[in-house]
Amino acid sequence: MKIGVLALQGAVAEHARTVEAVGAKAVLVKRVEQLADLDGLILPGGESTAIRRLIDRYDFLEPLRAFGESGKPIFGTCAGMILLAKRIHNQESSHLGLMDVTVERNAFGRQVDSFEADLAIKDVAEDFPAVFIRAPYILEAGDGVEILSEDTGRIVAARDRHYLATAFHPELTEDTRLMEYFLKMAEDAAGKAVHR
Ligand SMILES: NC(=O)CC[C@H](N)C(=O)O
Questions:
Q1: What share of the chain in percent tops pLDDT 70?
Q2: Into which CATH architecture does domain 2-190 fall?
Q3: pTM of the entire structure?
Q4: Is 134 annotated as ligand-binding?
Q5: What does the entry list as the binding residues for L-glutamine (predicted)?
Q6: What's the average model confidence in pLDDT over 58-74?
Q7: What pLDDT shows up at residue 109?
Q8: Is ligand 1 within 6 A of the CB of residue 170?
Q9: How far is the CA of 137 from the centre of ligand 1 (A)?
């Protein structure tokens, strides 16, 4: 399986390492043509406004939408979750607008810029070490969205069809269980599901 990591800005190398750790091939995506032969794509954390500027500069917006709309899985972490969302709280427009959620940016407030929490994530882990950095969270999720994890009442991981999003950074720990979950989504989508 080939999993791309959008390599415009943000935590790119860490995701690529985790992709390789679960036995898939990581592709650092810097040009639109590279999307063609991927089985899934990761939108990393970083700064969503900066990533968006680069998406526009390199004409990635429509190709990324088309990638998602073709049924290929996309995993957005932190800023990547903001890029995936259909709605952004207090903002008129969204970015890719693919996942049926409303997100709020920097939602944990300045006092708690960064923190770690052990999270129960449905179908993934009882105790996932989650690192939050100026993290957003999901304020509202559409009916078809499966809530995978909440931290103190806030939705911090969710899945909408073939879109997966976390408010935290799974790539900053050695724990590969969430990446295994995403790889399984990509395998299922590719119709190549193998017993693992
Ligand atoms: N760690 C992150 O990805 C932070 C996200 C950032 N606060 C944003 O709004 O894009």
A1: 96
A2: 3-Layer(aba) Sandwich (3.40)
A3: 0.95
A4: yes
A5: 46-48, 105, 133-134
A6: 98
A7: 77
A8: no
A9: 10
Angle made by CA atoms 148, 152, 157, in degrees to the nearest 5: 20
Is the predicted ipTM greater than 0.85, yes or no? yes
Q: Is the CB of 167 under 6 A from ligand 1?
A: no
196 — pLDDT class (breaks 50, 70, 90): very low
48 annotated as belonging to a binding site for a ligand: yes
Backbone angles phi, psi at 139, to 5 degrees: -80, -40
Question: To the nearest whole number, what is the mean pLDDT of the chain?
Answer: 95
- pLDDT surpasses 80 at 112: no
Domain boundaries, the chain: 2-190
Mutating to test ligand 1, I would choose from 133, 138, 169, 172 the residue with most ligand atoms within 8 A of its C-beta, which is: 133
Q: Which tokens is 100 given?
A: 């049926």
In the chain, count of helices (H) and strands (E)?
Answer: 5, 12
d(CA 52, CA 8) in angstroms, rounded, equals 9
Q: How many CB atoms lie within 10 A of CB 116?
A: 14
